[in-house]
From TrEMBL:
Keyword hit for Transmembrane helix: yes
SUPFAM superfamilies linked to this entry: MFS general substrate transporter
The name this protein goes by in its record: Spermidine synthase
InterPro entries given in the database record: MFS_trans_sf
Keywords linked to the UniProt accession: Membrane, Transmembrane, Transmembrane helix
């Protein structure tokens, strides 16, 4: 879920001002597409968060403690990411594209890396803490960049723009929060759910940057983002072939170690 409390919106300008970037669609449709991207990114972000909590319960145990640790670290890191994004707003399109690509790779691979860490080291806590911080920083960097992008389409007062972004953010988070336990886990399982979410996250970011804001990018920047996105999608899809053996090996290791509540 995006961090709306830490956003630093650009200086407002009168509503209806001419856009500062050329779009392939009218400004109204462009704003709607950015809000749709906010919705998808928020849903993916919450799925990553719930995934970490579910894996902490499965691999570590002590649900209350691990949930508190994951949530606290992610919220803290989101604030850090929001502050760091101030330096990225000079090239918001490219920066947002790279942030989404990195977030998709990190979030999509999180479950498999946690499983692998548990198998190799018999301990998932260090990896869990690392991913909580990494995902939090990347999620926190989204909102300031999205605020900058939507204001470049058609400037409006900062409060109105924030209200629109926050509404899309919260509805997306609700959708992701419901989809994870009722749709993704039953149909796909932990590992495939994370991988699929990463693919969706990559495509959402690419749609905004490489199509809607493509004229805001140099040719080199477009190729860099395209290559990065294709690579991430290929890696996540290729990882599906390792899901079954990794789940089987981890399940056996967890059973051998005893109930999570006893660890």
């Amino acid at each position: 879920m995006l961090d709306s409390t830490e956003a630093a919106p650009p200086v407002s300008a009168p509503a209806g001002e001419e856009p500062s970037v050329r779009l392939p669609v009218p400004a109204g449709i462009g704003r709607a597409l950015v809000l749709a991207a906010v919705f998808v990114c928020a849903a993916c972000g919450l799925v990553y968060e719930l995934q970490l909590i579910a894996l902490a319960d499965y691999l570590v145990g002590d649900t209350v403690t691990q949930t508190s640790i994951v949530l606290s670290l992610m919220v803290f890191a989101m604030g850090i990411g929001s502050l760091a994004a101030k330096r990225l707003r000079r090239s918001p399109s490219f920066s947002f594209g790279m942030i989404e690509t990195l977030l998709a790779l990190a979030g999509g691979s999180s479950a498999m890396v946690l499983y692998a860490g548990y198998l190799w080291f018999g301990e998932a806590r260090p990896v869990l803490i690392g991913y909580s911080l990494l995902l939090g920083v990347l999620i926190g960097a989204e909102m300031p960049l999205l605020m900058t992008l939507i204001q470049r389409i058609r400037r409006q007062d900062a409060g109105g723009a924030m209200a629109d972004l926050s509404a899309a953010d919260y509805v997306g988070a609700l959708t992701g929060g419901l989809a994870f336990p009722f749709l993704l886990l039953p149909l796909l399982g932990r590992l495939n759910a994370a991988l699929l979410t990463g693919v969706v996250n990559t495509l959402a970011g690419a749609a905004v940057v490489l199509w809607l804001f493509r004229r805001d990018l140099t040719r080199r920047a477009r190729w860099v983002l395209l290559a990065a996105g294709v690579t991430v999608v290929a890696v996540l899809l290729a990882a599906t072939f390792w899901v079954s053996p990794l789940e089987s090996a981890t399940g056996q290791a967890v059973e051998a170690d005893g109930p999570a509540a006893d660890r």
